[in-house]
């Protein structure tokens, strides 16, 4: 069957090959003393807290399951607006908030609304692999700019200015980032957006991990930038990570006021609305009891980071910048791979899987600059699992 060029441009998700192999091996070792530990997974080990689960059951029992408005339940948009004010000090009118089927649909809507065929979007290398494909599905071209640990693996204004040309439409950033868990310093973000805005470009910023921020200096939303800057940025967010609702498929997009009706038109046609049950449930995320639980979980994620990253460094899996958010560590595996007698992160990941029953994600999907040098560890597993992972790393690398 002939497939579209659009579909052909979407690269394979190599990580799935590792995940498939890890899944197959996990079955074989499930009942041994060393069952597989999955540190390759980018989702919290927590599920939606009780009030959220109850709200979902109630919505189903009461038949509150019809389509909602394309922009989402007004009450949910109000609550998100309130959360921006109380948690981030950002003034975000509910009319700028569009409820979507996860950050994924939010990214898709933003790209479809703003990118013309041939437009270039600048993004850091390494970054979340699907971003390249949202851009290419909208017939744009992603331009990956290699970043360094000194830059916290993020774009700088200097690099954005240097890469900007007649075809550039804007930047797509993520702060904190997947795979590095590092954020853009607020001053740098402001400076990048000032430049992009002055060129009539767009700043798309994926803030899906912002709720899971561990350091005061970095935990600020781009929507809180002063004046026109905060009003003109486009921010993507989700209930998947901080709110522990990955499979519920719910997220949102904050757009400048003038863009809201355009996004509404596209969303009406392409999606009708996001899941009504998930939206009804998500209202309960903002109850004081749920927010208190999310904050306890954030503290647990921070404690895992504080334990695991120093251990990786001690074992020679150097993490060049301490993550300030999310639940990832992007570790240089060059020395560790040599100690296992393999070279490159792909073979290292398979060696760890086979010899230590530890699944990790090699750098290949995240960019082209140094994929063989890095592996991504996820610290979204329990402390006990992380301790066992360290013991196994120690025994194979030791
Ligand atoms: C940086 C980033 N953006 C977006 C997504 C997609 O999230 P969602 O589940 O909200 O579609 C992910 C998922 O891992 C992610 O890491």
Describe the structure.
It is a single chain. The protein is α/β, with parallel strands linked by helices. The protein folds into two domains: 5-47 and 290-397, Alpha-Beta Complex (Aspartate Aminotransferase, domain 1); 50-286, Aspartate Aminotransferase, domain 2 (3-Layer(aba) Sandwich), CATH 3.40.640. It has helices at 5-9, 14-29, 50-61, 74-88, 102-114, 129-137, 157-163, 186-198, 228-232, 260-270, 276-282, 288-314, 334-339, 345-356, 383-397, and strands at 37-38, 97-100, 120-125, 141-146, 168-174, 202-206, 234-238, 251-254, 328-332, 358-359, 361-362, 374-378. The chain has a seven-stranded mixed sheet with strand order 2-8-7-6-5-3-4, with helices on both faces. Strands 9-12-11 form a three-stranded antiparallel sheet. The protein has a two-stranded parallel sheet with strand order 1-10. The protein is globular. The model has no long low-confidence stretch (mean pLDDT 96). Bound molecules: pyridoxal-5'-phosphate. The site of pyridoxal-5'-phosphate has 13 residues, from helix 5. Residues 42, 102-104, 128, 174, 178, 206, 208, 238, 240, 246, 251 line the site of pyridoxal-5'-phosphate (PLP).
Please outline the helices and strands.
Blueprint (H helix, E strand, L loop, with lengths): L4 H5 L4 H16 L7 E2 L11 H12 L12 H15 L8 E4 L1 H13 L5 E6 L3 H9 L3 E6 L10 H7 L4 E7 L11 H13 L3 E5 L21 H5 L1 E5 L12 E4 L5 H11 L5 H7 L5 H27 L13 E5 L1 H6 L5 H12 L1 E2 L1 E2 L11 E5 L4 H15 L1
Parallel strand pairs: 1-10, 3-4, 3-5, 5-6, 6-7
Antiparallel strand pairs: 2-8, 7-8, 9-12, 11-12
Helix pairs in contact: 3-11, 5-6, 5-10, 7-8, 12-15
The chain binds pyridoxal-5'-phosphate.
């Amino acid at each position: 069957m002939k497939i579209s060029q659009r579909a052909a441009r979407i690269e394979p998700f190599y990580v799935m090959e590792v995940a498939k192999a890890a899944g197959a091996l996990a079955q074989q070792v499930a009942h041994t003393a060393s069952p597989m530990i999955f540190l390759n997974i980018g989702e919290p080990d927590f599920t939606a807290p009780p009030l959220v689960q109850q709200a979902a059951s109630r919505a189903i029992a009461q038949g509150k399951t019809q389509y909602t408005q394309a922009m989402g339940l007004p009450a949910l948009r109000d609550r998100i607006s309130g959360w921006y004010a109380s948690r981030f000090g950002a003034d975000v009118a509910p009319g700028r908030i569009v409820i979507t089927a996860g950050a994924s649909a939010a990214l898709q809507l933003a790209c479809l609304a703003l990118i013309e065929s041939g437009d270039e979007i600048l993004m850091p290398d390494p970054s979340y692999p699907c971003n390249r494909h949202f851009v290419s599905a909208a017939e744009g071209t992603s331009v990956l700019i290699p970043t360094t640990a000194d830059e916290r693996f993020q774009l700088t204004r200097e690099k954005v200015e240097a890469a900007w040309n007649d075809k550039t439409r804007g930047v797509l950033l993520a702060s904190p980032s997947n795979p590095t868990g590092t954020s853009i310093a607020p001053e740098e973000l402001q400076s990048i957006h000032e430049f992009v805005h002055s060129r009539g470009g767009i700043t798309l910023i994926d803030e899906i991990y912002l709720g899971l921020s561990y350091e005061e200096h970095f935990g600020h939303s781009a929507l809180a930038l002063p004046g026109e800057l905060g009003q003109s940025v486009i921010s993507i967010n989700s209930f998947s990570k901080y709110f522990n609702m990955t499979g519920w498929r719910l997220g949102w997009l904050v757009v400048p006021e003038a863009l809201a009706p355009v996004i509404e038109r596209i969303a009406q046609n392409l999606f009708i609305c996001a899941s009504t049950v998930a939206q009804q449930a998500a209202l309960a995320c903002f109850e004081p009891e749920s927010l208190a639980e999310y904050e306890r979980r954030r503290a647990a994620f921070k404690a895992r980071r504080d334990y695991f990253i120093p251990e990786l460094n001690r074992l020679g899996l150097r993490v060049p910048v301490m993550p300030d958010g999310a639940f990832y560590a992007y570790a240089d595996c060059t020395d560790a791979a040599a100690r296992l007698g393999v070279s490159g992160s792909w073979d290292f990941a398979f060696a760890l899987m086979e010899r230590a029953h530890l699944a990790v994600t090699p750098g290949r999907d995240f960019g082209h600059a140094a994929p063989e040098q890095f592996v991504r560890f996820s610290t979204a597993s329990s402390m006990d699992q992380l301790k066992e992972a360290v013991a196994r790393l120690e025994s194979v690398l030791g």
